[in-house]
Amino acid sequence: MVDDWRDLIHGWLHPGRCVLCGDPGTRRRDLCRHCAGALPSLARPCPGCALPLPAAAAPGTRCGRCLRRPPPYDRLLAPLLYAAPADWLVQQLKFGGRLNCGRLLGEILAEHVAGAMPWRPQLLVPMPLHARRLRERGFNQADEIARPLARRLGIAVRNGAVRRVRDTASQAGLGLRERRRNLRGAFLAAPGSLGEDVAIVDDVVTTGASVHELARALRRGGARRIQVWAVCRTDRPPA
Fold first, then answer.
1. Contact call for residues 38 and 48 (beta carbons, < 8 A)
2. pLDDT, tens digit, for every residue of 191-224?
3. What predicted TM-score, i.e. pTM, was given to this entire model?
4. Radius of gyration, CA atoms only, the chain
5. 192, CA 20 to 30 Å: which among 25, 31, 182, 222?
6. Of 4, 45, 49, nearest to 28 (Cα)?
7. Ramachandran assignment for 161, one of left (phi > 0), alpha (psi -120 to 50 degrees), beta (any other)
8. Which residues lie across from 204 on neighbouring strands?
9. For the segment 105-160, what is each residue's pLDDT rounded down to a tens digit?
10. Are 55 and 44 in contact (CB under 8 A)?
11. Where are the beta strands (DSSP E) in the chain?
């Protein structure tokens, strides 16, 4: 309730302005109605990994990869494809330090998962950054997305429950197998620090290697049911 009033007062004092075109925002967001309609919605996602399925796929059908090798999490939810202009918003947050883009992305994600989550998690776990990278960047983009998500849904954020204990090499240019090898043992969850039901929060899922490895660490830490909530999903299957 307090957060609802705070958001309402903030909207009166600081009306939203679209980060994409500069026009007045709608619903107290930094996004106008026209640009909101231009965001690339994720259609026909696999209910396991959220990879877009062919138009002929029946509702609820899982992709071949999830059928052959189910992921270590229960479900991945993502509202947007990683394409223009959603990719620009993510890049402006991650590499440009525009934290208002993080707030906007968190609000978009909250609206999506509020009506789609199969069960309500006990806590949110933002994708951790290694301490060195966190010092360099000054913030964790997953944290910036998780905060408005937590306020909207009334779910606690737990940053200290999982640490990124290996400073892995960049994932850019690596295939799925190389990414998984690169991330092996990268995360450590403190035993007993997690609830049974958790949701991982991230900006973009590409091959899924990071959320796979983090989900495994959460399982070892005691999590029983795991969702992945990401703002964007790429539309290509992992190689």
1. no
2. 766 778 999 999 999 888 899 999 999 998 889 9
3. 0.87
4. 17
5. 182
6. 4
7. alpha
8. 232
9. 999 999 999 989 889 999 999 999 888 888 989 999 999 999 999 999 999 998 87
10. yes
11. 75-77, 80-81, 123-126, 156-157, 162-164, 187-189, 197-205, 225-233
